[in-house]
Amino acid sequence: MGVGGMSPKTSYPLEDLARGLDLHIRLTNERIDDELARIGRLRRARRQVELRMWRTSPLFCKPR
Q: Please, what is the average pLDDT of the chain?
């Protein structure tokens, strides 16, 4: 760090900036895809539990 908290290197080649942005976007997209897959698994599991509970519940608990 330079004086006043400024980095001595302030100019970066555009290729480095583009490469860094591409990496950030790719990692963010992967994280979003992982979260969407996790949410899908949770929703499916919840539906399966609800169906199993409905199937095994006594007749008086079921709507007619």
A: 86
